[in-house]
Description:
Chain A is of the alpha/beta class. Chain A has helices at about 1-25, 40-55, 85-95, 105-115, 115-125, 130-140, 145-155, 170-185, 195-200, 205, 245-255, 270-280, 305-315, 320-325, and strands spanning about 65-70, 185-195, 215-225, 230-240, 260-265, 285-290, 320.
Amino acid sequence: MIKxxxxxxxxxxxxxxIIPFGITFSQNGSDPLPSWNxxxxxxxxxxxxxxxxxxxxxxxxKPYDRIATFDNDGTLWCEVPTIQVAYTFMxxxxxxxxxPEWKDEKIFNALLDGDKEYIDHDxxxxxxxxxxxxxxxxxxxxxxxxxxQVSDFFNxxxxxxxxxxxxxxxxxxxxxxxxxxxxxxxxxFICSGGGxxxxxxxxxxxxxxxxxxxxxxxxxxxFEITDGSxxxxxxxxxxxxxxxxxxxxxxxxxxxxxxxxxAGNVRSGGDIEMCEYCQSNTLPSIQLIxxxxxxxxxxxxxxxxxESLNACAKYDWNVVSMKNDWKKIFEFE
Amino acid sequence: MIKxxxxxxxxxxxxxxIIPFGITFSQNGSDPLPSWNxxxxxxxxxxxxxxxxxxxxxxxxKPYDRIATFDNDGTLWCEVPTIQVAYTFMxxxxxxxxxPEWKDEKIFNALLDGDKEYIDHDxxxxxxxxxxxxxxxxxxxxxxxxxxQVSDFFNxxxxxxxxxxxxxxxxxxxxxxxxxxxxxxxxxFICSGGGxxxxxxxxxxxxxxxxxxxxxxxxxxxFEITDGSxxxxxxxxxxxxxxxxxxxxxxxxxxxxxxxxxAGNVRSGGDIEMCEYCQSNTLPSIQLIxxxxxxxxxxxxxxxxxESLNACAKYDWNVVSMKNDWKKIFEFE
Lengths: 333, 333
């Protein structure tokens, strides 16, 4: 009697080990998210993916409707410093001698003097001032020339803290998540406040996301044929700041349907509307907000007003704690 | 001697039959374009696809770069009448009693009076007047409401000549071509002067092209949360008329890379710049222009100034003769 009771106990213990593995591991038995700790966030993500891909589930979603949108800065890669700001800073320094008029503009001075507070305040409030600089340094040249300059930057510049190229500061757990979603027939998009033409230079190399799946801020441009070559010329007027309430608009322009999966991060509240738009999908959906709470392995910062975390609490979105949910952050660790 | 000469002749004759079959037929031996006649146009298309997909060819193009862009009206489906114009005409009639101010505008009168010449002239010169009407009838409502109205139209309206729903007037040879390209790992996009939100209602149903692969004319919009529902509100300001020199700009916004395959049609010269942009790709590329020369099975019309056909001659683009190159035009024939 006692023996068989022990056998049942042993079986139950075994089951206790099997069940979480069963939840966490993908169909072929290997963990699809090995850089994630075994927390509620990870199991929420995996449960969601399993439900929407299970034809027998009431939550089943056809592959056609499995659209996922990820913010880029602070969600997929490190945003301290914001990489496009680092690029722009380099360009401003390079171009300043031929643009004395910039000396009277506050944002240019902030960049040159390293006035972090002014720049951060601008980023937190939508980045309108920085956009001015972006277009001053990025417009009036062909798309090809611009992307060549950006490419040169990525080949030479390095991250001030980690001393690696900026293309290496992506978050390993998020790249795993992108690959996991794709393996489950999700169509994955970047949806970032960053410049469309800027991100497209590295989106495929870094994340395996093709240029057509990148949504970002963009401006007017013009098609020109000069000396037999057909070029896109970048003009200085902004069309869309793909941030905050601009994100659902960008998603509609570029995708035309609501996502069922969206991920953003705490810093400026820039991803709240994207997650609201995602959650308004009549299909099952999930939302993630990455919280930068790991001062040792990355950076610790919060958001003035705390809107993103408040929205998580209000709408039951998943807060991803970099400190607790991620076993590993960078490939180079 | 004569016997063996005859044997060689027989072999050569056999080869003569085998070679064209070898060129035309796909790897598994079935014809990928059965609705196309065995003409130079068909063999040019198939030769191109074979070269860019053959790793041993000097013309090989990686799947990542196999981007194809197709105009819609007159290239993928019948444009007599332009289907979005038919929709708009219906809406103008429906909305006129509550919009007496429209009576003073020339384009509204042209629509109501069936002034074909005025409308055609507008289409041929870029459709700016019609765009006014499109936005008068399409703006100020949510995207969801607009697409519901368009969907109702497609469920009820029928083509005046063929007496079938408008969703049935697509060209069978072009649908075959889209499927052939996809089977060869091309990413296929619609790139049309038509409204983005309009075409997306039917792009997947008619062509199997998902909404994110549709590029079209689009206007400003706004994200709004009202009564707990998250909506995109369509505003009256145009951002991009995705026609003529607007097409390369649209391709850059939505794809971010140059196509290697582009197809348009004769009518307004609207696809010339798209084909020029495609041809400026440093990778091997091919361009097609559909010529409406089949008065019996479809409609016969040319282009004032003849720019599209002139461009075909100048740049060595393929003219697709509906009369000679297409065995079948419509599914319902």
